[in-house]
Design brief:
The protein has about 350 residues and is of the alpha/beta class. The protein is built from 14 helices and four strands. A four-stranded mixed β-sheet has the order 2-1-3-4, with helices on both faces. Helix 8 (about 195-220) runs antiparallel to helix 10 (about 230-260). It starts with a helix and ends with a helix.
Length: about 350
């Protein structure tokens, strides 16, 4: 036990000296991530939907606005008493668009052939205003349906009371004209990326530092062999172990600082993901060492391993969304297991 403690003390001291520049860089990265996280959090406001203005000049317009105000969906309808103020907010981008319901617009709409009773203001840069038609028209139709029935059947002398009860029943159970919004999973190349690039970069950095640690152990192979007994094998194995564990600890420190700075939750999942990454890296670097014995050979593979991790693992883009079979290639790189564990896919 005493020998193990002495060996690991020496190896940790050597690791800190060998990677001191990396450690300083990661400490600076931790500090920057903390500041950026705080800035992102302080600048965020709760998203409450696309703002649409509504201005009315009579009671029917107000009634329609109250229906729109209670709508649950992607739009948030805001009432305005002053038309000019609403137009100003559309121009400066506060509102996506604005509807003006003038006096007696409702009565005019009820007349056969009446047109252009509602004015819509929107910015040329807007596109969502076209979708808002549906919500406004659906609520307007709901208001009009009863009066249309009354006018029609009164004209032919028919009793409308029973029909109005039926109309109300069908309106409540959704059998009549009705818009329903439902989010569906996108397919093919339109799948959502949902990337955490910062975590992906940290994973690639941990992978690189572990490979450099393996290269360092290879460079000291001749020195280790001079040790008596099994000490040389313990030193080499311990050197690899310290390199992987040290990389995990430093990368985990960066993630912790980012989470604390941005107020994010999920530290437990990050710890679990780092634990999985530690096991995968331990096995990966020792597997490489079975076939690669010289540090020069290992270093020649570094660009391919790091570039492959950045391309095939979901660091900057999910290549599997665009190239069939790319997800299987990603399994050749340890970073993919770390990111899958962090996202709950493992």
């Amino acid at each position: 036990m005493k020998n193990w403690l002495q060996i690991y003390t020496i190896l940790w001291k050597q690791y800190l000296q060998k990677h001191r520049l990396w450690i300083v860089f990661l400490l600076l990265l931790c500090f920057a991530a903390s500041i950026i996280g705080k800035a992102d959090t302080s600048g965020k406001e709760e998203y409450r939907g696309i703002a649409v203005g509504v201005c009315w000049e009579d009671e029917k317009g107000k009634e329609l606005f109250q229906m729109l105000e209670n709508e649950e969906g992607i739009f948030r309808f805001l009432g305005y008493a002053d038309k000019e103020e609403m137009i100003r907010h559309v121009e400066n981008g506060t509102l996506e668009c604005g509807y003006l319901f003038p006096e007696d617009f409702y009565e005019e709409v009820l007349k056969q052939g009446a047109r252009n009773q509602v004015t819509l203001y929107y910015s040329p840069a807007s596109s969502a205003y076209k979708i808002s038609y549906e919500v406004v028209f659906a609520d307007l139709f709901q208001m009009l349906s009863e009066d249309i029935l009354v006018q029609y059947f009164d004209g032919i002398g028919f009793e409308t009371a029973g029909l109005l009860l039926l109309e109300e029943q069908y309106a409540q159970n959704g059998s009549t004209f009705h818009f329903e919004y439902e989010a569906v999973e996108q397919k093919g190349s339109e799948k959502s990326e949902n990337l955490d690039t910062f975590r992906g970069c940290i994973g690639v950095m941990i992978f690189l530092m572990s490979l450099l640690g393996l290269g360092n152990a290879m460079e000291q192979e001749n020195t280790f062999k001079k040790m008596p007994g099994n000490v040389h094998r313990r030193l080499k194995s311990g050197s690899i172990h310290v390199a992987v564990l040290g990389s995990i600890l430093m990368g985990g420190g960066c993630l912790l600082m980012r989470n604390l700075g941005s107020g994010r939750h999920g530290a437990a999942r990050d710890v679990m993901a780092l634990f999985v990454f530690f096991i995968v890296l331990e096995l990966y670097v020792r597997f490489l060492n079975l076939f690669i014995k010289k540090s020069r050979v290992l270093y020649s593979f570094l660009p391919a391993l790091i570039l492959g991790s950045c391309i095939f693992c979901p660091v900057f883009i999910r290549v599997g969304n665009y190239i069939e079979g790319a997800d299987w290639i990603a399994k050749l790189f340890p970073v993919s297991y770390f990111l899958d564990a962090a996202s709950g896919k493992l």
